[in-house]
Amino acid sequence: MSPSEYQKNSGDLDFCASRIEVVFEETSDIWINLPPTKLIITSERTGFRHLYLVTKPSAESSHYHVRPITAGDWPIVDRPIYVDTKRELVYFTAKKDTPLEAHIYVASYAETADPHSVIRLSELGYSHFVVMDEKCERYLDWFSNIKEKPKCGVRYFEWDEGQIFPKVSETLGIFVKGGNEEEEVRSNEDKRQNERIPTGEFFNFKNSDGVTIYGCLYRPTNYIQGKKYPTLLSIYGGPKSQMVTNDYKYPRLLRLFLAVHLGFSVVLIDGRGSSDRGLAFESYLKGRMGTVELDDQIAGLKYLSSMNMGIDLERVAITGWSYGGYLSLMALAQHPQIFKLAIAGAPVTQWELYDTAYTERYMGLPGENVEGYHKGNVLTWAEKFPDGLVSYNLCKAVITRALFIFRELSDF
């Protein structure tokens, strides 16, 4: 399906499709008693990913009916859902209370249920990852925040008489592995002091369009109030990614933590184009990758500088991998007044030579978006890289890699 063929259905789904694909098949030597047919799906038709109940056609209709289970300006997270068919409840992970934390919620899919009636079951101040049993009676909760190590515990559901939604019982114990024996970690602040793991500080600001942008700042280990420090902006900036979240970052950000110990201020910003903020926020880069993502990043750096938070705008480096490497190169070429150094890992350089399904989803077809592909090409901006041997070698490496891929494809 080409990008121009995308459609959104609302209300009903056509039962008499012209093309049929078998997704499940069951056989029996006796007979098969057909159960009531219900299907739960997710959709972003409202601009935010939500759950919908699909029911089979009635005798008077050939259309499947679609009804929302959840609704609102917040997204369901792409994780497993758990369905209690006995009580007609569905448990899911979402970012309803804050885009920085993933929580477990419950909603009813009963006929009379209100899609806005959604109950959070997990504790605020942490990000949660949940695995639930088949009967939806208990679950394993793995949770952490930016300051505290991951903790893990089993939680149980309890129902008061006449209540639709459950309550979560107190955990009998929260344990993680500690050497050869399990160790209680309800309070581990004293251990953090000895590990010297940097703790980030969340911040947010309004960009030029009035949209709230979230970021995280790691001040250098030797930080002195009022002093400016060389700054490293760590970036991804592309679709299906969110860097600024309230969960434990060690050892994922180990290299960035080393920079903190070496005296750098380290900054992460989730600008428009990143995920879990709704379709409008994510689709800001549609058709113009590499040309708009850096606006929010630069605005965030300037915000931190204006708040005297240790950012030196005269000494800013940028680093990233894959899409982040791509934007690191673009930053050096498009905004040399801000970025003095780029460390780019495995960057995309020319979208025509990248994965077709990924590229055309976000950029459209090359023949229909000539300007977008041209402006999003690193080689288009190559002459704007700073002068010097280092930049020359960078451009040479980019061009050599692109030509190698092109020749391989041509020979094929």
Automatic annotation (TrEMBL):
List the keywords (alphabetical). Aminopeptidase, Hydrolase, Protease, Serine protease
Q: Where are the transmembrane segments?
A: none
Tell me which Pfam families the record gives.
DPPIV_N (PF00930), Peptidase_S9 (PF00326)
- Residue ranges annotated for the Dipeptidylpeptidase IV N-terminal domain, each copy included: 22-147
Query: Which segments of the protein form a coiled coil according to its record?
Result: none
- Enumerate the GO terms in the molecular function aspect: aminopeptidase activity; dipeptidyl-peptidase activity; serine-type peptidase activity
Cite the InterPro entries for this sequence: AB_hydrolase_fold, Peptidase_S9_cat, Peptidase_S9B_N, Serine_Prot_S9B/DPPIV
Q: Name one GO biological process term.
A: proteolysis
Q: Does the keyword Ribonucleoprotein apply?
A: no
- The yes or no answer to whether the keyword Transmembrane is present is no
Task: Provide the Peptidase S9 prolyl oligopeptidase catalytic domain boundaries.
Answer: 256-377
What the entry lists under PANTHER family is as follows: DIPEPTIDYL PEPTIDASE 9, PROTEASE FAMILY S9B,C DIPEPTIDYL-PEPTIDASE IV-RELATED
The entry assigns this protein to a family as follows: Belongs to the peptidase S9B family.
Name under which the protein is recorded: 15837_t:CDS:1
Q: What organism is this sequence from?
A: Racocetra fulgida
